[in-house]
Amino acid sequence: MEGGTIYGLTAVLKNGINIVDGACAQSNFHDxxxxxxxxxxxxxxxxxxSANKPSGIGEVAVPPVAPAVANAIxxxxxKRLRDLPLML
Length: 88
What we know:
Shape: globular
Strand order of the largest sheet: 1-2
Strand content: under 5%
Helix content: 25-40%
Number of helices: 2
């Protein structure tokens, strides 16, 4: 969950992936750096007790990050941002 949140924040706050001639211009993390620990907020993940069998959590943390940050910016500034990375 924490890693997924970091990847979501990276997409929201840093440069995006560029497509050039139908191919991804970034080949690995040296071209698209991930948010560093000193750039990240504190993240807390909580395990909710359940009687269900364990299953994969995967990247479920990634999709809600951008809308959450965009809504927080809207609440603070009144400005709607709709493109990633979010820029004020």
